[in-house]
Every structure is written in structure tokens, then in C-alpha cells.
Amino acid sequence: MAVLFSFLVQFSIDFSIEKGGQSEREDNVSLELTEEILQSMEVGMAFRDYNGRISSMDFHRTSNYLVTASDDESIRLYDVSSATCLKTINSKKYGVDLVSFTSHPTTVIYSSKNGWDESLRLLSLHDNKYLRYFKGHHDRVVSLSFCSRKDCFISGSLDRTVLLWDQRSEKCQGLLRVQGRPAAAYDDQGLVFAIAFGGYIRMFDARKYEKGPFDIYSLGGDVSEANVVKFSNDGRLMLLTSSNGHIHVLDSFRGALLSTYNVKPVSSKSTLEASFSPEGMFLVSGSGDGSVYVWSVRSGKEVASWMSTEAEPPVIKWAPGSLMFTTGSSELSFWIPDLSKLAAYVGRK
How many whole angstroms separate alpha carbon 304 and alpha carbon 293? Predict the structure, then answer.
């Protein structure tokens, strides 16, 4: 099973690598991500050995590594190309909630979940050593975004603060106070960051954030709690999810609200996640009833959906440069195309 999965993952990577270019091998199949491919996707591999729900996951930008955080207080490192779990590290003392890779493939930043120490920690997965502590928040951290190009990150907390950090320093580089639960994210270049709360997204220039937002985008009257804000890979789009089940897509340059997708609302203890596909043409999201949906950003229509027996929304991430996304709930699932359903592949000799 693992061998087959590895082949399909590599096949998915071949798809995206050959996109828009001439294949070096004439017998290779070159396809862009399409609705047909999305509708064919199914779980190609699942890890069911978790003793709690997965609370966060992250793909490294340039390696084949995936890291997960779980309510069973474990941090797990996976090699996606070989479908193997490389390492499990337990954080029994502090717990673990959100986790994010740094620019290094075996170094992560994570937030705790013990209720008494809200410090962020820089952890080497290679030798299980803490490299740095980032102290400043006084309540649960609910948003964490790392910019690998700048080695900086941003965190938002229920203490109604958003803190700016440099990975190389334990001292907070900046503090912004907000009026509600914040969702925060850097763009890919680290030049701009967004903070969402109270029905608006506030846009900041990272070089002069102390002057306040340079623009404020409205969410069309949706004043429910912001859950997640993200930029597309090319920086042209951004999404925001809210607790009442709305997923908003905006033009990140003009602030125009392009579309809103509706799923089941989530509880105050859950987070509604969504993720852009690598080229930004599609969006995959969870739902308050555990279902998974794929939407076309261009047309605004639902492309595919998969129902679930889970009662909470899954954590969800699209793998960089690949035709694969992952979901995390009580198990970790890798979703890949079913090649037997793709006419362009079946008809190829």
C-alpha cells in the first residue's frame, strides 16, 4: 500500500512540475489541476494511530516533510514521499496545539495547550531540543503564521494581542492590540501581513506596521469570530473562515469580496480551516459536520464533496506543488487522484 501511495504521490508531483512546460519524457502525462482530477480524489493513505484529534499540521515549503500536532500531546514528522512517520515527539509537560515549520525542515514552532504557559517554543525535531522560547501571550494562541523568506512569524491570542517575532530573538518585535479573537497571516514574501477580527481584515505593511493598517477590507457583514486567514501562493487572493461557517475569498490587492462559500458552523472550541490549491484556482475546506468540500475560485461553484462521520471540522492543508491535500481529525488522511478515473491517463499507453 505504501509503495502504491508513493508512486501516486510522485505521479501527482509530476503533474504539477510539467504544468505549462514541455515534458522531458514523451511518455509522461502532463495535466493541470482540473475539476475532473478533483472529483476523482480519494484517501490514498491514512494513519489511524492517534489517541486524540489532530489540532494542526504544516507542510515544509521545499522538502517532502509534513508535521502534525495532536490532542494526544504528540508532534509527528512524516516523509510524504515514502508515506512514513519518521519521528514522534511527546510534549506531555506543555501540550501542543498549533505547529508550523520554520525554513529548516526539522525545526518547528509550536504553541502549548496546558492552560498555564502560553509561550511559543522553537523545537529541533532532529534531537528533540528546545532552541528558543517566545514569551509574551497570556492566553491560548489561536493563530500562527511563519514567513520562511524572512525567518519571522506572527501569532494571535485570545488575550487580544497579535505579536510579531523574529525567529532569532526571544524578544517580541512588535505588539498590536485587537478587539476580539484574531486570525493573522503573512503573505509569501513577508512584506504584508493581515489581521482579521470583528468583520474586517486589516492589512499592514510589515516594514511600518506601527503606523496602523494601510487598508481595511470588509467581510460583507459577517461579524462572527474569525478562524483562519491565508494568502494564496501568488499573493493575489486571500481567504478567511469564520465560526458561522462562511469562507470568504477576497482580492488581496483591492479588497473586493469575490465569493463566499457556506458550510456548517463550528463550535467555539473548533476551527474551520480552508486551503488554496497551489495555483490558487481551487479551495478545499472543512465543515462543522466534518465534511470536506472543494470549490472553484473562478466560478464559485462546488466541485466535489465528501461526507464524514466525524462531528468536528478537519484540519486541512494542500501540499505545496502537488495534486494532494491532507485532512486531520482522529486520523491523518492523504487525498490523491484515483488514476483509474482519469480518462487522460487511462487512454495513455
Answer: 6
3-state percent helix, strand, coil for the chain, nearest multiple of 5: 10, 45, 45
- State how far Cα 281 lies from the chain centre: 16
Q: How far is CA 29 from CA 20, 159, 278, 318, 342, in A?
A: 12, 51, 19, 21, 11
Residues 199 and 221: their CA atoms lie apart, in Å, by 6
pLDDT of residue 342: 76
CA distance 50 to 24: 41
Mind listing the pLDDT tens digit for each residue in 33-46? Answer: 999 999 999 999 99
Contact 134, 120 (CB under 8 A): yes
Instruction: Fill in the DSSP letter of residue 313.
Output: P
CA 49 to chain centre: 22
- The 8-class DSSP code of residue 218 comes to E
Please give the C-alpha separations between residue 92 and each of 70, 96, 97, 300, in angstroms, as whole numbers. 11, 8, 12, 43
The DSSP letter of residue 287 is -
Radius of gyration of the chain (CA): 19
Residue 16: in which H helix or E strand, if any? helix 2-18
Q: What is the pLDDT of residues 166-210, one digit of tens each?
A: 999 999 999 999 999 999 999 999 999 999 999 999 999 999 999
Neighbours of 243 (CB within 10 A): 19
Confidence band (pLDDT; 50, 70, 90) for 325? very high
- In this prediction the pTM is 0.90
- For the stretch 322-325, contacts whose Cβ atoms lie closer than 8 Å and that sit 24 or more positions apart, written own/partner, are 322/9, 322/12, 322/13, 322/16, 322/278, 323/12, 323/13, 323/15, 323/16, 323/33, 323/37, 324/9, 324/12, 324/44, 324/80, 325/41, 325/275, 325/277, 325/284
196, 183 Cβ separation under 8 angstroms = yes
DSSP-assigned states of every residue in 140-196: -EEEEEEETTTTEEEEEETTSEEEEEETT-SS-SEEEE-SS--EEEE-TTSSEEEEE
Cell of residue 258, nine digits? 469575490
253: cell is: 490587492
